[in-house]
Amino acid sequence: MKRAAFLDRDGVINIDHAYVHDREHFEWVPGVLEGARMLTDAGFLLVVVTNQSGIGRGYYTEADFHALTDWMCGVFAEAGAPIAAVRFCPHHPEKALGLYRRECRCRKPQPGMILDAAKDLNIDLSRSILFGDKPGDCTAGRSAGLPERVLLGTDGKCQPEACVDSTRTAKDLLSAVRSDWMTAFIRS
Predict the structure, then answer these.
(1) Where does substrate bind (predicted)?
(2) Catalytic residues
(3) pTM score of the predicted model
(4) Which terminus of the chain, N or C, has less C-beta within 10 A?
């Protein structure tokens, strides 16, 4: 079975400008590609798990999301950090329109995106890790059985306060991957 690093998108990979859905508004968090490459070099599959209620709210379409995702994955691949899978949830229980308005098992803090990716990609969750910038990301990781859940500073701006569902905190992905505890986790 494979190890994976599950990454939230907005606030971890790109600056969270709210409902980012095109390249014009996509701005990389500094160091994210280097950190992702280091994770890939250490043997982790990269899996993006992202809530995208902007689709459900009608701000952009699934086609818009996929076009941006294809471009983003291409940049990761060029950086030596290919993305193995991207899981997204377009639903919201209150603020979405039509069929998108519903409770679901995939919207974080629920673990559905992580569990589905683990099944499809033969991932050993007990040896995997999640990086998110919101407590709900870490809650999803804990519910999925991930032993390490790292709460990052949104947009890499500052070290966050620990939350009940995170095992670690770091300013951004690169500083997390360079940490002594991550080196020990990689070797485990």
Answers:
(1) 8-10, 16-19, 50-53, 107-108, 134
(2) 8, 10
(3) 0.97
(4) C
